Every structure is written in C-alpha cells, then in structure tokens.
TrEMBL record, chain A:
Domain of life: Bacteria
Protein name: Iron ABC transporter permease
CDD domains: TM_PBP2
ABC transmembrane type-1 domain ranges (all copies): 76-283, 368-560
Transmembrane segments: 21-47, 80-100, 112-134, 162-181, 210-228, 264-284, 312-337, 367-389, 409-430, 436-459, 488-509, 541-563
Pfam families: BPD_transp_1 (PF00528)
Location of the protein in the cell: Cell inner membrane; Cell membrane
High-level lineage: Bacteria, Bacillati, Actinomycetota, Actinomycetes, Nakamurellales
Broad class of the protein's primary localization: membrane
Annotated source species: Nakamurella leprariae
UniProtKB/TrEMBL annotation, chain B:
One Gene Ontology term of the molecular function aspect: ABC-type transporter activity
The protein's name: ABC transporter ATP-binding protein
Keywords: ATP-binding, Cell membrane, Membrane, Nucleotide-binding, Translocase, Transport
SMART domains reported for this sequence: AAA
Organism in which the protein naturally occurs: Nakamurella leprariae
Length: 609, 371
C-alpha cells in the first residue's frame, strides 16, 4: 500500500507536487538548521584546535583537557552538591506549600498559587542578581538591617556560600515543583487519607503512610526535574557561586570560553559530556513520569474536609509571608533601593543619577531597544514558528513527522550556555553567516531558537485540544493548509497565543547566555548589561537597569492581558452572534445551513398546560 | 455499650445550614439508615460521627464516651474512635496490596504479626477474596474493591460500623449482591449507620430508617412504617408516592375504630370527594394533601360488572406504557392526571390512549398529610 503510494508520488512529483512539498522542505531545512547543525558544530568544535571556520587541525586535546585535567573532580563534585541540594530544597519547599494549599484551612493559603506563578514567571537572573546583592557580606540589605538591629559588625548571612547558592536556586525550583505536585495532590481522593484516619492512623501517620507514598511518583519527577534544571543553570552559579569558589560545569564552560586564551575545544568537550548526562536524565524523567500509575479505580473523588491546626495553624501563615518576603519582596526592595543609590551598601542618599547615567549611554539605550524588540518581535516570531511546528508535526503524526520532531527536543537536554556555545560555533563555522556575526539579527535568531521549546510547550496543549474535525471541515471547505492555519487554528488558540507570546518574550528577556556569548560591547540586552555592570562592581547600575527591565516587563504584561481580553471578547461576541441567530436554535448547532423559509420551520410544540 | 447518641448536632457551610440541631439515638446493635436526597445532611451526619467533619454545635456520644462536644471543646480524632467505615469511593489505597489494605487497622492497633495474618485472611475469606490477597488493590474490579473495603471495615471488629453510600458506584446487579453481602457478614452486635438515597437499600437492610430532608430528621421508624405511613407529603414525594393532590377535609365519615377514622376529603382537581383512612381525626375545613402510590390505584374497563367500590371515578387514558411486568397508565381524571401501575394478569389487554376506564383509589391506601 505505502509502496504503491510512494511510486505514484514519485511519478507525479512535478510542478504542483513540488509546490505542495515546498513547505515541508522549508520546515525540514529550518529544523535541521536551527537544531541539528549547531549540535553537529558543537561536536566538531570539540575536536578542532582552532575555532570553527578558522584554519586548524583535528585534535583530541580538547577532550583530553576537559576530562583529564586533575581538577575535573571539583566541578563534578560541586555540580552534584548543587544539583542535589537545590532539587531537594526546591521539592521540600514545594511539598510544604502544596500541603498547606490543598490540605489545610490556613488563612493565607489562597495566596500561595499566585505567589508561585510570579516566581515561575520571573527570570532566574532576577533571583541571582537581587540575592547576590541582598545577601552580600556587610553591604547587603540583610546584613545591614542585622547590623542596625544588633550593632554587630559580623555578617549574619553570606549568600556567597553553599547554603546561599542552594537557597537561591531552591526558590526558583520550588515554583517548578509546586506546579508539578499540586495537580496530583488535588486529584488525590481525600477519602484515601480519611480512611487511614478512621482506621487508626494519626494525622502524621496518614500523611506519611498515605499522602506521601501516593505523591511519590510526582515527588520523584520533581526531584529529577530539579536536578536537571540545576545542572543546566548558569546565572545563579555564575553570579553567586563563583564568588564562593564553587565551580559547576556551566561556569567551567563559560570559563574556558572567556578566559584568555579561550579553549573552545575544551568548552565543547565538557558541554558534550553534560549533554550526554542530561540526555540520559531527560530520558529517565520521561520514563518516570509515564511510569507508575496510582490513579484509583472507580469511585467519585469526594471533597473532604481540610485539616485545621488550631494550635500551630498560624505558623503556616507565617511561613507563607516569610517565603513571599524572601522570594520577591526583599529582592525587589533591594534592587529598587540600590538603583537609587550610587554606592552599593548605602540606602539613604536617593537620586536619579544611575538612571540618568543609563539614559546618557548609547549602549544602554540600544540594549533597552534591543530587549523590547526581541521580546515583541522575537517573541512573536517564536510563537508563530512554535505553532507551525506543533500544528504541522503533532496534530496528525506520522513516522516522518515524529522523526522531524525529535530535533526540537534537543534544547531540553542542552543547557542554555551549551546551546549558545553551539550557536556561536555555527555562526563562525559557516562563512555565509559571517556578515551577521555580532549583530542584533544574529542575537534575535539565536534567542528565537533558544526559546522555541518554551513556545512549543506553551502552545501544544491548546493546539492538540482543538477538535480535529474543525480542521478537517476547513480543508473540506476548500481551505489549503496555510489558510486553515491562519483562519481556523490561530483564531481558535488566540488567547493562548497571546499569553505564549508574553511568556516567550519573558524567557527572551531573561536569557543571559546568548547576550554573553553572541553579544559584544555594542550589541547586547538588558540582562547582558545588568550582568556586566554587576561583574564590573557597578551593582547600583546593574540594579537600575534591571529595574528598567522589570518595568518594561510589567508594561508588556499589562498589554498582553489587555490584548488577551480583547481577543477573548471578540471571540465571545462571535459565538454569541452565532447562538442568537434563530436558525441556529432551530436547526441545531451541527447544521448551520441556509436559514429555512418560514413555512419550512417546524411548528413549535405547544407547551404543556 | 456502643449505642450512639447525637444531640443538637449543627453544621453550617457559610450561610447554608446543612444540619439543624439534629437529635438522634442509635440503639446498640441496631442497623440504622439515614435516608434522604442529596444535600439533606445525611453524609455530614455520618462524617461528624466519624470525626472527619467537626460540627459547629452539638454533642455526639459513642457508648459511654463523649467523642464530640462543641461546647466543651471535645473533638476526639477519627483514629481514636474505634470505628469501621466503608467509603463511597471505596478508598482502597492504591499503593498497597489487598492484604496490606485490610491489615492496616490491625497494625495501627499494634496487633502481632501472626494474629494480623490470621485475622486478615479470615476477613478476606468471608468476602471471598483470599486468592487476591497479594494482588495490587488497583488490579481489582469495582465490586472486588468494595469487598476489600468491607473486609477492612470489619477486620478489627469495631463496635460501630459506618457506611457512606457504599453501593452507589456499583452497577444494579452488583448492588443487590453486595447488599446481601453486607447483611451476611455484619455481626449482630455491631451498631451500624448506613447512609443512602436509595430506598430499596434502606428497606432491605435496616432495622430503622431515619428520613432526612433539608438538614432535619423528619421521620424515624421501621421500614414498614416509613413505607406505609410517610409522615408528610414531602417524605411521601421523596419515597416515590406518585399521586399527590391538594384537598380540604369535609368531615368524618366514620370515627376511629381499629385502623383509624375515615375522613372525607374534597379534592377539587379530581372533581371528587375521597374517603381516606387516617389514624387521627382531622377537623373539618383543614387543608391537607392526599397521596396514593401508582401501584395501589385500581383500574378497570368502563362499565365493568359488579358493585362500584368507594373512591371510584371515571378517567380517560392519556398514555399507556408497557413496563414488561405490567402496564403504567397516565389517566386524566377531573382536571388532573393520575398514574396507575397494573401488573400482568390484573388488567385485561393494554388500553389504548383515549379509552375511558374506571379508576379506584382504595381508602386504606390513600394517605392524608396535614402539614
């Protein structure tokens, strides 16, 4: 059957057929170019003496340097401590808040989910940068307040330490874990725990014997995802960890690239090792999350009573407030206060000097412009491409479409820094790309590629939920694939399209690796600039430019909410009109045909008297 | 001593009062059913007895122990009440084997390993699931899960057994066999409270039935009494009395002898005056509701020979429905419809719509509700 089809396909592969195949060829080329080529370049980089594109020789030196150098044990050890510590910390925090939110009558429990949404949406760079300042020895707000309260000169907390590093990473990871755990926790049939109580278990017994074991698949998934995210993390270990002498894989790779002389082969080799490890972990994670099925057979899930803790219940409220303080209130206060002071560590001489300095610098102004451009245009392009890929490859998968989809998963196993390194190598290796090297265009393309997985993830639910018959109906009605995409699919997913646009834009704005590796002193983004200011010991300037970013994000967020509301209202009105038209009521929603003439209308059944 | 005494039990959710000062005494060893439509407060009562839902007012005593007293701030946690309970959703722990599920209550009591093994296997034997002891609980069918739940509820031989609509998730056939199962395995000394909205379950299982409507217990009586004499029109409607009509008492036809007085009730919608047997006398002029089950209505072809019994009117068939075991007629009588169900052999061939017939409402089957 398939053989005969393909023979026929080959015979008529002319003119119109080519035109039909063109979008598929373009898609294949695009996916291969964006995901496969950079990956291959990375592999090549690992075996070359010189940068890709430059004359050099094939060598194993990079591999040898990266994996035999005596102190590889140190980054390996540090990476493990960091990843284990952060994933455990994040999961424990999440577990606590999931329990409070879904199982207790704590007064502030409804604040937890919005709080976690904010943390999830906030770029990692925010937490890294703000806590690096907040927890700085002597000059950070935490230690300043401590000194003011106690008169002691000793610092009470230094973020540049193992506890500090793991704590900051745990904050961000807790939001990930929270949303992984809250679904299973809410879906769990409450009578399972109530049964344990009735049959003699105390609350603690019911928690440890029933609640935790039933949640264990989700907890394992959360630990693994936390571990993977920590291994991939760059911002936090670079900004906070390196000051404490903590060196993880990603900071080592960055060191190989930025130290003089740069050792791209070693960087690429280490990156490949990381990708191999992560690929295994991602595979394990997918298996694990698919694995054990604890759904109970039969029975309605009863909404059981939440537990009230009359004696210690207030502690939960305190924990929620404390976490909100640590996670974003204090960091924001630190950034805002520092941005109005020219000397880091002083919080009393307010002025606009940092901001006016920012506006006077053409690099800063262009960085702000770039960021807005990347967020708006880059975000839009990313979401459109993401929608095209999802619609083309996921809605009706075949073996070929699945194979073509595989490369789009490469970024999940690739740390941002490694991806940036691969893209940098690609730019250098392909002479045709040299003209755009160092330009905003190159940076935007790189950001689009790096953010594509996020856009796909965000859109896939709404696209895959669309009833296929709606698409089929458009095709039968005479619309081609492009027409179907623009006039049926996109309008149907419009609200999530706009949200996805904002979320992708946010990921682009928070990306630090690409501006660091592909940018330069003239072309960068706000994140790149904030990092540079911070590293150059100009923390107040870093705070100021980051505050600019926060305001920009808030404005764009408001715009996206407005846009989403507008689109929803437009869609609603359309639906309302459809439902109000009398023929729709008479003939039923399934057959919106030509309105029947009045004499054809069936007589209404007389109402029962 | 394991009777249950509930006094002025009150529960509110926001502005809605789910239980309004409920008083109820369950005798030791009795099987009592809380019967009522959804939202009547029966499940809340059961959960309050179990300690799963702290009430807003009232006291609960199990045996000699006060387990809940809002005024005194007493709220014994569920695990200290020595109960057995069968949950609506079975609540079989999916991460444990069948054996471990049933063993749970014994292990919490610190029973020794050998005894646990023996008692669990005994319980599984009773419900016919010994062969499945090592299986994962999720691998069982709904009916088997229900049996595990039953075994778990009874394994520790609790003094009080609670059933929260245990059969509502089973299909009709399984429901009947599980109902018999519950009756079979329950030992006589166990005080049992059973919550359901299904009257056939209630009638089949209970020593007494407490009918609850809108958070208030409206009737507490034996199944037979509840069936034959619903306390008011609402209970009658809930119990499925199909024919209910407004009327006014004309007077006494015959005063109380034996089964009660016979009242004459003017029912305008039927354009007739009905005689009805009622245990008490009701003053003339009182507004009442009269009710009769469809199965008690007698139907005969018009012009049938013999004496005309009391309460007979002429009606016209509006709709006839073949029920398999019999026929259901919807008939126009006066300005109202009367529903009648006949059983095979009782009535002649099914009468078509439009046919006229004589409809008899036997006085002893007509209930009079004064409130």
């Amino acid at each position: 059957m398939s053989a005969s089809t393909s023979t026929r396909g080959r015979r008529i592969m002319s003119g119109r057929a080519w035109l039909k195949a063109l979008p598929w060829i373009a898609l294949t080329v695009g996916i291969v170019g964006a995901f496969v080529v950079p990956f291959v370049t990375l592999v090549v980089m690992a075996f070359r003496t010189a940068l890709p594109g430059l004359p050099g020789e094939w060598t194993l030196d990079g591999i040898v340097t990266a994996f035999t150098e005596s102190d590889l044990a140190k980054p390996l050890m540090d990476s493990m401590i960091f990843a284990v510590g952060s994933s455990v910390g994040g999961t424990l925090l999440a577990l606590f808040f999931v329990f409070v939110a879904t199982r207790t009558t704590t007064r502030l429990r409804r604040l937890i989910t919005p709080m976690m949404v904010v943390i999830l949406a906030t770029p990692v760079l925010f937490f890294a940068l703000s806590w690096a300042m907040l927890g700085a020895d002597n000059v950070g707000l935490v230690n300043k307040v401590w000194s003011a309260l106690t008169g002691s000169d000793e610092s009470v907390f230094s973020v540049s330490s193992w506890p500090g590093l793991i704590f900051v990473m745990s904050i961000k990871l807790s939001a990930f874990s929270y949303f992984l755990l809250i679904g299973p926790s809410m879906a769990m049939n409450r009578s399972l725990e109530e049964a344990a109580e009735v049959f003699g278990a105390s609350r603690a017994g019911s928690f440890f014997r029933i609640y935790l074991p039933l949640l264990s698949p989700a907890i394992a998934g959360s630990l693994l995802i936390g571990f993977i995210s920590s291994l991939q993390a760059f911002d936090t270990p670079q900004i906070i960890g390196t000051q404490a002498g903590i060196r993880v894989f990603s900071t080592e790779i960055y060191g190989y690239v930025t130290n003089f002389p740069a050792n791209y082969a070693a960087a690429a080799s280490l990156a490949l090792g990381m990708v191999a490890l992560l690929a295994f972990l991602v595979w394990a994670q997918m298996r694990l999350l698919r694995g054990r099925d604890y759904t109970t057979v039969g029975g309605k899930s009863t909404r059981g009573a939440a537990w009230s803790f009359p004696r210690i219940g207030w502690l939960f409220d305190v924990a929620i407030v404390l976490f909100a303080l640590l996670a974003f209130v204090l960091p924001t206060v630190q950034l805002v206060l520092s941005s109005f002071n020219t000397v880091f560590g002083r919080y009393d001489s307010f002025s606009w000097r940092n901001y006016s300095k920012l506006l006077d610098s053409p690099v800063t102004v262009s960085a702000i412009g770039n960021t807005v451009l990347f967020m708006v245009v880059g975000g839009f392009v990313t979401v459109v491409i993401g929608a095209v890929i999802t619609a083309a490859l996921r809605v009706r998968p075949t073996r070929w479409k699945r194979a073509l989809e595989v490369p789009t998963w490469i970024p999940w196993a690739t740390p941002g820094l490694v991806g940036s390194l691969a893209l940098l190598g690609t730019l250098l290796a392909i002479p045709a790309l040299h003209p755009i090297y160092g330009t905003a265009t190159a940076m935007m393309i790189a950001l689009v590629i790096a953010s594509l997985p996020i856009a796909i993830r965000f859109l896939e639910n709404s696209i895959l939920q669309i009833d296929r018959q709606l698409i089929d109906a458009a095709r039968i009605g005479g619309a081609g694939p492009v027409r179907t995409f623009t006039s049926i699919l996109i309008p149907l997913i419009a609200p999530s399209f706009i949200s996805g646009w904002f979320v992708t834009g946010l990921a682009i704005a928070g990306n630090l690796e690409i501006p660091l590796l592909l940018g330069n002193t003239k072309v960068t983004t706000i994140s790149g600039l904030a990092f540079k200011y911070y590293v150059d010991s100009a923390a107040p300037m870093a705070a100021a430019i980051f505050c600019v970013l926060l305001v920009t994000v808030l404005v764009l967020f408001a715009l996206s909410v407005l846009g989403r509301r507008l689109v929803t209202r437009l869609l609603d009105r359309r639906t309302a009109i459809r439902l109000e038209s009398p023929e729709a009521v008479v003939t039923g929603a399934l057959l919106p045909v030509v309105p029947p003439s009045p004499d054809e209308l069936p007589e209404r059944e007389p109402a029962l008297k | 001593m394991s009777g249950i005494v509930i006094h002025e039990l009150t529960k509110r959710y926001g502005d809605a009062t789910v239980l309004d000062a409920l008083d109820l005494t369950v005798r030791e060893g009795e099987f009592l059913t809380l019967l009522g439509p959804s939202g009547c407060g029966k499940t809340t009562t059961l959960r309050a007895i179990a300690g799963l839902e702290p009430p807003d007012g009232g006291t609960i005593r199990i045996g000699d122990t006060v387990v809940t007293s809002v005024a005194d701030g007493i709220e014994v946690p569920p695990n200290k009440r020595s109960l057995g309970m069968v949950f609506q959703s079975y609540a079989i722990w999916p991460h444990m084997s069948v054996f471990d599920n049933v063993a749970f209550p014994l292990r919490r009591q610190g029973v020794g390993v050998i005894e646990v093994r023996q008692r669990v296997l005994d319980s599984l034997e009773i419900v016919g699931l010994v062969h499945a002891a090592r299986r994962s609980a999720t691998a069982l069918s709904g009916g088997q899960q229900q049996r595990v739940a039953l075994a778990r509820a009874m394994v520790a031989d609790p003094k009080v057994l609670l059933f929260d609509e245990p059969l509502s998730n089973l299909d009709a056939q399984l429901r009947i066999s599980m109902r018999d199962e519950i009756q079979r395995v329950r030992s006589d000394g166990q005080t049992s409270i059973y919550v359901t909205h299904d009257q056939s379950e209630a009638f089949a299982l209970s020593d007494r039935i407490a009918v609850m409507l809108g958070g208030i217990m409206v009737q507490l009586d034996t199944p037979a009494a509840v069936m034959s004499r619903p306390v008011n029109a609402e209970v009658a409607r809930f119990l499925g009395v199909e024919n209910l009509f407004e009327g006014t008492v004309r007077g006494l036809v015959r005063s109380g002898t034996g089964s009660g007085s016979v009242l004459a009730v003017d029912v305008p919608s039927l354009k007739t005056v009905l005689s009805a047997v009622h245990p008490e006398t009701v003053p003339a002029g009182a507004a009442v509701t009269v009710g009769i089950r469809a199965g008690a209505v007698m139907v005969a072809g018009a012009g049938a020979p013999g004496d005309v019994p009391p309460n007979t009117s002429t009606g016209r068939v509006v709709q006839s429905t073949f029920l398999g075991e019999g026929v259901q007629y919807r008939m126009a009588v006066g300005s109202a419809h009367v529903l009648a169900r006949t059983f095979s052999g009782v009535a002649a061939p099914t009468l078509p719509p439009g046919a006229s017939l004589s409809v008899t409402l036997p006085p002893e089957a007509v209930a009079v509700f004064t409130s």
